[in-house]
Amino acid sequence: MSFSITQWVSDQFSDLPLINENLEGRIVVVTGANTGVGFECAKHFLRMNPAKLILAVRSIEKGQAAALRMIDETRETRSDIVEVWQLDMASFASVQSFAQRVETLPRLDLAVLNSGVSTNAWEITGDGYEVT
Predict the structure, then answer these.
(1) Which residues are within 8 A (CB) of 83 and not within 5 positions of it... i.e. 6 or more apart?
(2) In whole angstroms, what is the distance from residue 109 CA to residue 52 CA?
(3) 21-31 burial by CB neighbour count: b if 16+ within 10 A, else e?
């Protein structure tokens, strides 16, 4: 396989295929789902008819606001399929609690692990590790 700069440049302006598979009966988790790529990803999954869509977010309040916005933008009538779960990736206790909660699900079909923390300053988590 050879590399072509012309083909690479052309590929940068190509649309990716949009997948619209029916996710009926499937459970989906998206971390960092209240903003940016995570929000858009979760919103797309909501359009795909999952049994349950879990928005894993640091702030429950921001997550609930994102869930309402997502439901409104997709015109989804089954708002009970969207759940907001707390997950702070900078806290081992939060990650462990989230993992234990995920273990109670009957199944987990899709997980988009999008969340992350990036700051312009040196910060330490409550567990004593560097945030980023």
Answers:
(1) 52, 53, 54, 55
(2) 10
(3) eebeebbbbbb
Check residue 83 and give its pLDDT.
97
CATH fold of 22-112, please?
Answer: Rossmann fold (3.40.50)
Do residues 14 and 87 lie in contact, with contact meaning Cβ atoms separated by under 8 Å? no
Residues 6 or more apart whose CB falls under 8 angstroms from that of 84 comprise 54, 55, 57, 60, 63, 64, 66, 67
* Model pLDDT for residues 59-92, shown as the tens digit of each residue: 999 999 999 999 999 988 887 999 999 999 888 9
Phi, psi of 112 (to 5 degrees): -110, 110
For residue 13, what are its two tokens? 């302006």
Residue 114, token pair as written in the block: 């999008």
Phi and psi, residue 81, nearest 5°: -80, -15
Q: What is the rounded CA–CA span in Å between residue 129 and residue 80?
A: 37
